[in-house]
Design goal:
The protein is mainly β. Helix content is 0%, strand content 46%.
Length: 54
């Protein structure tokens, strides 16, 4: 899923997160979720595309 630096669909994609990658949601803005990966990287993704954890 594409990740952006800001919660805006017209913002450039800064990374692509692979399915199954564990992330933690640290804040939301509308349908957007700011996530942090295990390596500390953060970005904004479409929160509707996130699955629930085990």
């Amino acid at each position: 899923m594409p990740a952006r630096g800001v919660p805006d669909p017209s913002a450039p994609t800064v990374a692509t997160l692979v399915g199954g990658l564990p992330v933690q949601v640290i804040q939301t803005s509308g349908a957007w979720a700011q996530v942090v990966c295990s390596n500390g990287w953060t970005g904004w993704v479409d929160g509707r595309l996130l699955g629930s954890g085990p």
